[in-house]
Amino acid sequence: MRVAVCQLNARDDRAANLAVARSLLERAAAAGADLAVLPEFTDYLGRAAGLPKPEPIDGEYGQFFADAARELSMWVHAGSFHEAGPDAAHTYNTSLVFDREGALAGVYRKIHLYDVEIPGRVSYLESASVTPGDQPVSVRVEGQTVGLSICYDLRFPELYRHLAVVDGASILVVPAAFMLHTGRDHWEVLLRARAIENQCFVVAAGQIGDHEPNRTCFGRSMIVDPWGTVLAQAPDQVGVSVADLDLDRLGTIRAELPSLANRRLPVS
Ligand SMILES: NC(=O)CC(=O)C(=O)O
To answer: Which UniProt keywords apply (predicted)?
Structure first.
């Protein structure tokens, strides 16, 4: 299976963000991707005050990427967007996955919210405006089980254990807007750890660069194999990176180094 990670610099202009996302999906399709993944908050990454009215799953955002998937005949993981939430003050941070016909194949709401205060570096209280999801979600894509997650989820290995062991995922997807300060030291280590410990491919699409207000994202979108080898890493710019997932290699790694099968403790 050929996968693409689309690295974006979304800002406060929703229409412009979607136009760039569409052009990256076109590049991914031209490169022969079966599945293309966009980053967290592909719709909008700007000041809270300027956030366009949050939409339902079948709103314009969903329709836009359903059309893209159908027109490009490619599976599209539409990063995440601000889904209308349970009350006026809260959205969900939601991923949508569309099949080649543009049919909705999966919906995942970010479970772990980024409430972090690192003085002078990072100040973010995601729970002030986002309601967390509470369900791990996997989707069948081209005969493979793909486990869904979003950004800060990456720090919670129990989610990925569930996706790999309970759901049987062979591919783990991570749309992200990882901060520069934390990303420098943690992004690659965490992605490769999740790949190695769960013996899965990890496909991670990130935001890159400056976003209002005072937010800089790390980028370095990455595709990692189940051995922990980095198959593709994006340069520090908006663009598309592609890799082929050798699913036979996944079987070989799991057979030769059966750490998933050797687990001794149950997964809830
Ligand atoms: N932005 C996030 O949700 C996560 C992040 O930047 C981090 O975990 O660090």
So the answer is: Hydrolase
